[in-house]
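Reviewers of the previous submission asked for a worked example of the structure-prediction workflow described in the proposal, so we include one complete record here. The input consisted solely of the amino acid sequence. No template or homolog information was supplied to the procedure at any stage.
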Amino acid sequence: MQINKKIIFGITIVFVLALSRVLPHPPNFTPILGMAFFAGAVFDKKIYSYCIPILAMLISDLYLGFHAGMPIIYFAICVCILIGTFFHSKLNLTTSFLGISAGVVSFYLISNFAVWYGSGMYAFDLNGLITCYIIALPFLQNTFLSSIFYGMAACVLYLMADKHLKFSAKQA
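From that input alone, the workflow returned the following structure tokens.
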């Protein structure tokens, strides 16, 4: 059954990426945003697009530990998944790169807005917000590089498997 091949292959990639969070890595060099875009782009049933990555995150967070910022992080991940859904029928290397990049930028804007708003570390004005975004720029580099690396790897593996396993357009 091809339906099972596509679903199982997509779920496997998502869980491998999510579980790789527990491996030693440089700061902000994780597969999460690439995984989120990938899930949005490959699953036809949007319930899978959202539930599978969020479940994978919860499983890895059981090991890593829970924290107060989880709701905003999970929300930003859902935005990355949503971006992936816009590229669902147009998945290729170019759209993957563009979509993952858009996901990284949205995550950066959302998560650092939350830091500015809730941390008390910055003045509660436009200058404080800009300062927060500027101070977060060094973290953006690793987030971008890891998201492109992991997300593109997932998309390439998926596209190669699709070519050889002949996933049909509307199965998962």
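The chain has one domain: 2-165. We consider this example representative of the routine output the project will generate in years two and three.
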